[in-house]
């Protein structure tokens, strides 16, 4: 288990983190969401020892992370950085070795990951000569070449084209299936929804919602109904007790029900307006869940 | 991986990237060529012992011997050319083929033709005088015996001449100064490169700032030492082969002293340069933070040149104990040979304390400033910043 436990961090008067905690199981892909400046990067940097938490700690397999255990973590910083004048293969070998790989293992891993990330023909190139997309792949390779036990990636998908996103996503899913806990932050919530087993939403210095996406739906959006009543006039649902209209467009209505409200009563009210062409519990997207959680 | 292992990896990267860098290879070659060039110049300049050519019209073979002896007495090698007559003599003098021409050197009225009066006059006069005295004594039937040799006993033999050692030390200090600046710059540029490319964040997720700093300074230090030794070997071999220096023991001793001081100076300046460089995020800003330290080096350099002329001066003595100036001034004083051992040890001790201090404070600045990218970090901010 990778555990983030009660992280508190203050910069001057700015209380960035006020007790951030979540857990990522081995083989779990954890999407870390939050508005700009919510503290995602700070959280990850604390895990990597680049910032010091005022309180709380990050544990891997039950022990707080230290220099030795951090060498077994693959990290992709938000501030991308590679040696511009170093060749791709030399650079990746260097990072693999800094993470503790032996010389032969490092060479083999560099061969493998440059192949898998489509960089095989770029091994001898200086990083500064590569396109930004390819630099991004090298950056990712730098996080993966050491065969890490844990992956912590800050916005790994930003700046990638769809092909790049797919190859990166494949690589992450493969590592994840191999039992590696993966934490990544992203603003691309559709991507998070597609890839992640679990999601944590960070707002106001805390995790305001976390769990699997279905869990979040149940918790946040489970009481919404979408009802399509083509013949109804505007405001048809206003009179139904325990119901709030979320949106209404020519009969296509999203309703939020109080916990005590019986959805069958809503159906009866809808039928009174005429035809009902759609009546279902609504699955809110992660974007909506996110808005909800951040706004709450 | 152990802490030392990380340091080793960092050091190795510094060495391999530099060694593959064309600019470094070229600058290294240039320095070596420069040293060889200086020696050849020394040889040519020093080898020009003056020679005088004197034309002779008439006379006998003893004239040549007499002229050469007279020349030797005044520190000149004399070459004698036989000329047929006065006309030829005038021609040779005005053409500059000979420095002077003597007519009838053993006759009653010898005559010397020169462009204008100079050292040739005395040589010819004393030669003609000696010949005349010899001839008169011979005419009186005196059998001339060669003069006895004077044997010399030194009551207070002075040490080997310190002059050449001081010259060697000065050349050494020039190289030392150049390499300190060069490798100090390398350290500084490396620090800024890692900051400006932001690779430092990735590096620091696998190691502590001190490991990165130590690896960088050690790696470049090994390279600097290698370059210093290479120059020393080329210099010593060349100097001995070309006969520029005649006392190999003294030469090698002085070179070793300079190399020792290079290491001390490098440890000091590399740490200061690294800490200063960590305050900025762009290569363009490097100049402003390095200038104070570079100035100290320049001051030390000029004092050491001055010390070469007057090693016993108060300025040289005092500055040879000032941290930062010591590595430049002390080798020159030591080569001049008038430094008591306790002074050398004291200077080393002061530098050791200074290095310890610089490494400690510099390491704090470096660790505090390293992750502050963008703009220039103030020294105070770096010292109080949280360290990863």
Automatic annotation (TrEMBL), chain A:
<dbReference type="Pfam" id="PF00005">
    <property type="entry name" value="ABC_tran"/>
</dbReference>
<dbReference type="InterPro" id="IPR003439">
    <property type="entry name" value="ABC_transporter-like_ATP-bd"/>
</dbReference>
<keyword id="KW-0547">Nucleotide-binding</keyword>
<dbReference type="GO" id="GO:0005524">
    <property type="term" value="F:ATP binding"/>
</dbReference>
<protein>
    <submittedName>
        <fullName>ABC-2 type transport system ATP-binding protein</fullName>
    </submittedName>
</protein>
<keyword id="KW-0813">Transport</keyword>
<dbReference type="GO" id="GO:0046677">
    <property type="term" value="P:response to antibiotic"/>
</dbReference>
<feature type="domain" description="ABC transporter">
    <location>
        <begin position="2"/>
        <end position="229"/>
    </location>
</feature>
<dbReference type="InterPro" id="IPR017871">
    <property type="entry name" value="ABC_transporter-like_CS"/>
</dbReference>
<dbReference type="InterPro" id="IPR027417">
    <property type="entry name" value="P-loop_NTPase"/>
</dbReference>
<dbReference type="GO" id="GO:0016887">
    <property type="term" value="F:ATP hydrolysis activity"/>
</dbReference>
<keyword id="KW-0067">ATP-binding</keyword>
<dbReference type="GO" id="GO:0005886">
    <property type="term" value="C:plasma membrane"/>
</dbReference>
<dbReference type="InterPro" id="IPR003593">
    <property type="entry name" value="AAA+_ATPase"/>
</dbReference>
<dbReference type="Pfam" id="PF13732">
    <property type="entry name" value="DrrA1-3_C"/>
</dbReference>
<dbReference type="InterPro" id="IPR050763">
    <property type="entry name" value="ABC_transporter_ATP-binding"/>
</dbReference>
<dbReference type="InterPro" id="IPR025302">
    <property type="entry name" value="DrrA1/2-like_C"/>
</dbReference>
<keyword id="KW-0046">Antibiotic resistance</keyword>
From TrEMBL, chain B:
<feature type="transmembrane region" description="Helical">
    <location>
        <begin position="217"/>
        <end position="245"/>
    </location>
</feature>
<feature type="transmembrane region" description="Helical">
    <location>
        <begin position="341"/>
        <end position="362"/>
    </location>
</feature>
<dbReference type="Pfam" id="PF12698">
    <property type="entry name" value="ABC2_membrane_3"/>
</dbReference>
<feature type="domain" description="ABC-2 type transporter transmembrane">
    <location>
        <begin position="22"/>
        <end position="358"/>
    </location>
</feature>
<protein>
    <submittedName>
        <fullName>ABC-2 type transport system permease protein</fullName>
    </submittedName>
</protein>
<keyword id="KW-0812">Transmembrane</keyword>
<feature type="transmembrane region" description="Helical">
    <location>
        <begin position="251"/>
        <end position="277"/>
    </location>
</feature>
<keyword id="KW-0472">Membrane</keyword>
<feature type="transmembrane region" description="Helical">
    <location>
        <begin position="289"/>
        <end position="307"/>
    </location>
</feature>
<dbReference type="InterPro" id="IPR013525">
    <property type="entry name" value="ABC2_TM"/>
</dbReference>
<keyword id="KW-1003">Cell membrane</keyword>
<dbReference type="GO" id="GO:0005886">
    <property type="term" value="C:plasma membrane"/>
</dbReference>
<feature type="transmembrane region" description="Helical">
    <location>
        <begin position="23"/>
        <end position="45"/>
    </location>
</feature>
<feature type="transmembrane region" description="Helical">
    <location>
        <begin position="165"/>
        <end position="188"/>
    </location>
</feature>
<dbReference type="GO" id="GO:0140359">
    <property type="term" value="F:ABC-type transporter activity"/>
</dbReference>
<dbReference type="InterPro" id="IPR051449">
    <property type="entry name" value="ABC-2_transporter_component"/>
</dbReference>
<keyword id="KW-1133">Transmembrane helix</keyword>
């Amino acid at each position: 288990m990778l555990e983030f436990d009660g992280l508190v961090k203050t910069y001057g008067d700015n209380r960035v983190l006020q007790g951030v905690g979540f857990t990522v199981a081995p083989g779990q892909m954890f999407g870390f969401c939050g508005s700009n400046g919510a503290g995602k990067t700070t959280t990850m940097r604390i895990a990597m020892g680049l910032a010091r938490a005022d309180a709380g700690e990050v544990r891997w397999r039950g022990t707080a992370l230290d220099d030795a255990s951090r060498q077994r973590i693959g990290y992709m910083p938000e501030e991308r950085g590679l040696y511009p004048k170093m060749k791709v293969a030399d650079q990746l070998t260097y990072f693999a070795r800094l993470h503790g790989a032996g010389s032969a293992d490092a060479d083999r891993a560099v061969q493998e990951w440059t192949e898998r990330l489509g960089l095989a023909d770029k091994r001898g190139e200086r990083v500064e000569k590569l396109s930004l997309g390819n630099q991004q792949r090298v950056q990712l390779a730098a996080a993966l070449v050491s065969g890490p036990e844990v992956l912590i990636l800050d916005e790994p998908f930003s700046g990638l084209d769809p092909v790049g996103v797919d190859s990166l996503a494949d690589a992450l899913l493969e590592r994840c299936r191999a039992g590696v806990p993966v934490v990544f932050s992203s603003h691309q919530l559709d991507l998070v929804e597609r890839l992640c087993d679990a999601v944590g939403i960070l707002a106001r210095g805390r995790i305001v919602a976390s769990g699997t996406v279905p869990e979040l739906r149940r918790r946040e959006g489970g009481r919404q109904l979408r009802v399509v009543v083509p013949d109804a006039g505007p405001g048809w649902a206003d009179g139904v007790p325990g119901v709030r209209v979320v949106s209404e467009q020519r009969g296509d209505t999203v309703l939020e029900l109080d916990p005590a409200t019986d959805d069958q009563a809503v159906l009866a009210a809808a039928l009174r307006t005429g035809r009902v062409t759609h009546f279902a519990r609504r699955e809110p997207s992660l974007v909506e869940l996110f808005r909800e959680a951040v706004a709450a | 991986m152990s802490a030392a292992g990380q340091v080793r990896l960092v050091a190795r990267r510094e060495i391999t990237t530099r060694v593959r860098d064309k600019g470094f290879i070229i600058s290294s070659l240039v320095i070596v060529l420069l040293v060889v060039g200086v020696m050849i110049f020394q040889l040519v300049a020093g080898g020009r012992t003056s020679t005088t050519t004197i034309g002779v019209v008439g006379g006998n073979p003893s004239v040549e011997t007499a002229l050469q002896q007279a020349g030797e007495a005044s520190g000149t090698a004399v070459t004698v050319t036989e000329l047929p007559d006065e006309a030829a003599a005038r021609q040779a003098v005005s053409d500059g083929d000979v420095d002077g021409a003597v007519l009838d050197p053993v006759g009653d009225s010898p005559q010397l033709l020169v462009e204008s009066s100079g050292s040739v006059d005395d040589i010819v006069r004393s030669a003609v005088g000696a010949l005349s005295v010899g001839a008169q004594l011979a005419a009186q039937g005196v059998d001339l015996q060669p003069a006895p040799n004077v044997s010399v006993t030194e009551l207070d033999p002075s040490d080997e001449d310190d002059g050449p050692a001081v010259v060697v030390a000065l050349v050494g200090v020039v190289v030392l100064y150049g390499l300190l600046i060069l490798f100090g710059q390398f350290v500084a540029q490396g620090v800024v490169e890692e900051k400006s490319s932001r690779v430092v964040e990735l590096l620091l997720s696998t190691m502590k700032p001190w490991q990165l700093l130590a690896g960088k300074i050690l790696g470049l230090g090994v390279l600097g030492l290698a370059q210093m030794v290479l120059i020393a070997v080329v210099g010593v071999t060349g100097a001995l082969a070309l006969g520029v220096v005649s006392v190999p023991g003294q030469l090698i001793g002085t070179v070793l002293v300079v190399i020792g001081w290079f290491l001390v100076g490098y440890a000091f300046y590399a740490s200061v340069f690294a800490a200063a460089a960590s305050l900025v995020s762009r290569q363009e800003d490097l100049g402003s933070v390095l200038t104070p330290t570079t100035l100290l080096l320049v001051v030390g350099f000029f004092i050491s040149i001055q010390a070469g002329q007057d090693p016993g001066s108060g300025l040289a003595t005092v500055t040879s104990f000032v941290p930062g100036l010591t590595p430049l001034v002390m080798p020159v004083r030591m080569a001049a040979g008038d430094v008591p051992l306790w002074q050398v040890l004291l200077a080393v001790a002061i530098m050791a304390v200074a290095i310890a201090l610089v490494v400690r404070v510099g390491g704090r600045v470096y660790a505090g400033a390293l992750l502050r990218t963008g703009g220039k970090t103030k020294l105070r901010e770096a010292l109080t910043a949280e360290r990863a």
